[in-house]
């Protein structure tokens, strides 16, 4: 995933490997282009599992002619009237982030091998070339034999007030839980904060459509954040969960984030500062029910 606010675009590239209910392995390559003032563009292609290659010595995944590794990515997708090609190099700014603790097991896992990175290279779309020079992005990974049935995921590393502040939030119906479990990692002003379920962290749906708010407390600080996306910036697609039930997938790379930081002074909470990111945040909803906004 990467952001290009200078040209009003953002991209989300995805390799998927899965098995259907009959146990047949399959692969897909997705590319999403979010453009200011236009509906999101979704390109995808399905592959036989024989078209997939990987390495046991280091991270490398190839689907057809497209590949992904820790240092970068190369990809091609086209439809009847659209074509997209990307050549990317990654510069990691943070160590890998394991969102779920080890005691939950590895049947369903969420990990960000590179939660904060800079991306260089180029993207070709319909004959137009976009050059990238250390643009913000991230690399995420979901795997497991029993993937979560539903989740809400958010990521932001483009706060205008501090380029080193970033956050990743996950609310998931993990197979080990009968209720949504909430996880948050926040890198704020050079310090890492982490919350697990049952800690001082709560999430709620905002009053406006496609809006989520969370509040977290730790070490004398209170963090309040609003994450939102306009309907026009969302991409939607069917999503099949392991049980075979049809699900729904909605996402954007052009969400908004506003993070308020409060400090406790004299028994009262006082607003210390606010950080904002406009049209550069990643938001993803996966649910069994049609989303109600």
The value of Rg in angstroms is 19 Å
**Mean pLDDT rating:** 89
Structure class: mainly beta
Strand content: over 45%
The residue ranges in which pLDDT falls below 50 over 5 or more consecutive positions are none
Following the backbone from N to C, one meets helices and strands in this order, namely EEEEEEEEEEEEEEEEEEEEEE
The largest pleated sheet is described as:
10 strands, antiparallel
Large-scale geometry: globular
Number of domains: 1
Helix amount: under 10%
**Termini Cα gap:** 25 Å
Sum up the structure in keywords.
eight-stranded antiparallel beta sheet, 22 strands
Describe the protein.
It comes from bacterium (Candidatus Blackallbacteria) CG17_big_fil_post_rev_8_21_14_2_50_48_46. This is Tocopherol cyclase. With 293 residues, this protein is an all-beta fold. It is built from no helices and 22 strands. It has strands at 2-4, 9-19, 25-35, 41-48, 52-54, 60-63, 66-69, 72-78, 83-92, 97-98, 109-125, 128-143, 151-156, 166-172, 181-188, 191-195, 201-205, 211-218, 221-228, 235-240, 246-265, 268-287. Strands 13, 14, 15, 16, 17, 18, 19, 20, 21 and 22 form a 10-stranded antiparallel beta sheet that branches. Strands 5, 6, 7, 8, 9, 10, 11 and 12 form an 8-stranded antiparallel beta sheet that branches.
């Amino acid at each position: 995933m990467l952001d290009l606010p200078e040209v009003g675009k953002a991209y989300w590239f995805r390799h998927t490997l899965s098995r259907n209910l009959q146990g047949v392995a399959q692969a897909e390559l997705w590319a999403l282009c979010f453009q200011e003032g236009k509906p999101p563009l979704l390109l995808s292609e399905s592959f036989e599992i024989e078209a997939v290659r990987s390495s046991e010595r280091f991270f490398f995944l190839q689907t057809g002619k497209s590949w992904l590794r820790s240092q970068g990515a190369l990809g091609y997708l086209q439809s009847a009237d659209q074509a997209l090609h990307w050549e990317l190099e990654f510069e990691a700014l943070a160590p890998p982030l394991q969102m779920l603790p080890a005691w939950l097991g590895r049947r369903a896992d969420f990990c960000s091998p590179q939660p904060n990175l800079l991306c260089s290279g180029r993207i070709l779309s319909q004959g137009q070339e976009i050059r990238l020079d250390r643009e913000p992005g991230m690399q995420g990974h979901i795997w497991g034999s029993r993937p979560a049935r539903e989740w809400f995921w958010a990521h932001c590393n483009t706060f205008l007030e501090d380029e080193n502040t970033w956050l990743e939030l996950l609310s998931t119906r993990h197979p080990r839980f009968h209720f949504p479990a909430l996880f948050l990692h926040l890198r704020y002003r050079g310090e890492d904060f982490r919350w697990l379920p049952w800690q001082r962290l709560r999430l709620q749906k905002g009053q406006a459509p496609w809006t989520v708010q969370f509040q977290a407390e730790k070490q004398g600080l209170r963090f309040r954040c609003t994450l939102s996306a306009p309907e026009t910036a969302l991409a939607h697609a069917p999503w099949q969960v392991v049980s075979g039930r049809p699900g729904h997938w909605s996402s954007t790379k052009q969400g908004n984030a506003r993070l308020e930081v409060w400090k406790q002074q004299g028994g009262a909470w006082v607003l210390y500062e606010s950080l904002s990111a406009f049209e550069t945040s990643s938001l993803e909803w996966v649910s069994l029910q049609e989303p109600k906004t």
